[in-house]
Amino acid sequence: MASHIGKLPVTIPAGVEVKIDGQSFTAKGVKGTDSYEIPEGITAQVEGNEIILIPADDLRPTRAKHGLARSIVASMVKGVHEGYTKTLDIVGTGYRAQAKGKGIEFSLGYSHTITVEPPEGIEFELPNPNQVIVKGIDKQAVGQCAANIRKLRAPEPYKGKGVKYSDERILRKAGKAGK
Q1: What CATH code is carried by the domain that includes residue 131?
Q2: Which domain holds residue 18?
Q3: In 10 A of CB 122, how many CB atoms?
Q4: Residues contacting residue 60 through CB under 8 Å, at least 6 positions apart
Q5: Helix (H) or strand (E) holding 104
Q6: CA distance to 92, 113, 131, 159, 178, per residue, from 126 (Å)
Q7: Quick one: pLDDT band at residue 63, thresholds 50, 70, 90?
């Protein structure tokens, strides 16, 4: 028995350079460079234009790391080639965002504005005051940054006001029943 995900090869697209040095894995592409330390018990090899990860044994922890390592390597290769984006919508009267240097200043109904600076490797784009696009090559960092922005004012279930992912569906609740 082996990891179903770990067995799958990772295709290297044109324009992406991969370097494996022992347990150190580095991917370099048009969007940038990313590196990862492959866990013990897993070895990576490049065969043609594919990366194959091989487990040392068939023990449960190794199988788990096998699938995880393959997923992270695949995400890195895609990230340096295409990059990742998360789109957030700001819903509510008076709720908006505006660029302030490299960061964004949010007006979300509080008595003060909230300024968010992008972490390293992340950039923000504001197509309009009610939409924020988070871009980067690291899938985990893009998702975490978008989650931190959403947490500033999570959407509420009655009017749907707040910061939400563009593909998120908010479950709405009925308000108070009138007399």
Answers
A1: 3.90.930.12
A2: 10-82
A3: 19
A4: none
A5: strand 103-107
A6: 17, 17, 6, 24, 40
A7: confident
List for the chain the helix, strand, coil content (%; round to 5): 20, 35, 40
Predicted TM-score (pTM) of this structure: 0.88
Give the list of residues 6+ apart from residue 106 with CB closer than 8 angstroms, or none.
90, 95, 96, 97, 113, 114, 115, 116, 149, 152, 153, 163
Cβ neighbors of 10 (< 8 A, separation 6 or more) are 50, 51, 52, 53, 70, 73, 74, 77
Let me know the angle formed at the C-alpha of 72 by 67 and 74, rounded to the nearest 5 degrees: 95
Contact between residue 40 and residue 11 where contact means Cβ atoms under 8 Å apart: no
Q: Domain boundary at 59, 82, 105, which?
A: 82
Number of domains in the chain: 2
Residue 140's nearest CA partner among 41, 36, 16 is 36
Condensed to tens digits (0 to 9), the pLDDT of residues 132-163 reads: 999 999 999 999 999 999 999 999 999 999 99
Asked if residue 55 belongs to a domain, the reply is yes
